[in-house]
């Protein structure tokens, strides 16, 4: 019997269609019962997922948008594309940072100008491609990091032998994805790539408080915050990824500044609730023999 593992992907027309469906009702206020589904943050989430979840939470909080944070061990399998986090609005789902921020900006009618979009787009693409690929390689391909941190975390909610099998299957998928989409071949390549990306971000930020506006944050600020914070708090033993961020004090100070800003929420009425759903409340894992 083989486990039916979700296909590993970063783009999907299904997500774009869902965004269109959810916002089709017109100019409405932010919904009251919004749920953000994420993996178990303290024990399960892996490096690139942590970055995306942190970025999404930061974006919503910085814009004063209420939501309930629902930590679920099966969050990945709730998503059509396996992208995380997953935003639930009534009976609709929006998966992944890009789709969620698109939905949020359309819902609250807060759009960037074409000039602003052009200014941040290269850096958003850099994070979505080279930084994310480096995180994937470091966490999933490097043997030491995979066996000591990633595999135990990813498999932690499941009983034996699934806790051993699922990380291995996921690793095969991610290796195949990186083989087709990334030139990375070693941890030295990862460090070189991340070092170049950190330099570019540091130079773009300069002495300013945020990447685009001295007063307001946008999705680039949230995305950078999520990925840098994930790297700064990484427990991966190989690569010393934290040190690459610490080389640039303006980036470290930026993360601290966003930490303060998102906690204030830009809205005195902001309220976030956290719910943790245990495995005992979930349906049993389904095994299929024809995959």
TrEMBL record:
GO terms for cellular component: SAM complex. Keywords: Membrane, Mitochondrion, Mitochondrion outer membrane, Protein transport, Transport. The keyword Protein transport applies. Residues 53-171 form the Mitochondrial outer membrane transport complex Sam37/metaxin N-terminal domain. The keyword Transport applies. Residues 195-258 form the Metaxin glutathione S-transferase domain. GO terms for biological process: mitochondrion organization; protein transport. It is found in: Mitochondrion outer membrane. This is Metaxin glutathione S-transferase domain-containing protein. It comes from Ramazzottius varieornatus (Water bear).
